Amino acid sequence: MLTDASPERLAHLYRSMLRIRRVEERVAAIYHTDKIKSPVHLSIGQEPPSVGVCEALAPQDVVFGTYRGHALYLAKGGDLRGMVAELYGKVTGCGRGKAGSMHLGDRSVGMMGTSAVVATSIPHAVGYAWAERTRKRDTVVAVFFGDGAVEEGVFPESLNFAALKNAPVLFVCENNLYAIHTPIHVRTPKPNYCERAEAHGIPAERIPGNDVLATAGAAKRAVDSIRLGGGPRFLEVETYRWREHVGPGEDWHLGYRSRAEGDSWVERDEIVRIGAMLDPDRRASIDASVDDEIEDAFAFAEAREFPRDEELYQHVFQP
Ligand SMILES: Cc1ncc(C[n+]2csc(CCOP(=O)(O)OP(=O)(O)O)c2C)c(N)n1
Ligand SMILES: [Mg+2]
Prior knowledge:
Strand order of the largest sheet: 2-1-3-4-8-7
Oligomer: single chain
Mean pLDDT: 97
CATH superfamily: Thiamin diphosphate (ThDP)-binding fold, Pyr/PP domains
Number of strands: 8
Number of helices: 11
Order of helices and strands: HHEHHEHEHEEEHEHEHHH
Number of domains: 1
Distance between the termini: 43 Å
Structural class: alpha/beta
Shape: globular
Bound molecules: thiamine diphosphate, magnesium ion
Largest sheet: 6 strands, parallel
Strand content: 5-15%
CATH architecture: 3-Layer(aba) Sandwich
């Protein structure tokens, strides 16, 4: 990690978050054409948790995520062309066109995979971390999940096992305050996620305000401790989903959350905040290069082929 708030570091964080935002905006804009063959759970507004935590990880470290995985895939260094082609269902996609948006992976950069079944990647990550520790490998495993996943039974089971085995795992709860259309306060009497981690002997930190620098700082402290053998850590990053739960649009009309609440998050857009810390010329050059890269990735996806029929049973699990 570069020194705190150096221009290089801010430019990197800005670029990384902007790239995720612009790709997803393009996905949303073309979704009605049906060229994208997959349901999409957009991370627009939720760029800081993935970008902040991934900045603190080393190249050999690995991540596990959820169906809302575009931000994590890109923040961990996943190939942009591979992701867009995957959304199109093309054979050059990172899952050879068979995985779609909800199952992104790129093992070459430690993006181990994502799951559409809420909370399932938590025990996967703990098992992987324990295996890496047993093999005496210098790997930190970060697992990302939503506030809804905390209500699944595997959450406390996984925390307990990770603490017991001193597994090198960083739990990252992206608390966007909702599970689909249900707010936290009607799902749980006490959303004290950090206390729940601490009850298992796992040090925990809550980062309010969708703050990428604070997230990166907390993640760095946690990752350093895990790498030194300090055992699992827990982060709760407060964030906010701007678009509908699944799909390209907005959903303020549904009434489960207010436009005023949404506006309060949009007004403190972290991409705008970090961008304002940059020299305007540098920011403009990043904006242009991100647009070029996205143009290239969509052109690549458009031009490529769908998998052939005979590939239907290749690269898939067959019991
Ligand atoms: C085991 C399981 N139960 C229910 C669902 C249906 N479901 C899909 S997403 C979701 C909400 C999850 O909310 P959260 O974990 O907060 O993640 P977010 O979508 O807010 O990022 C639910 C209940 C599912 N996919 N898997
Ligand atoms: Mg949620």
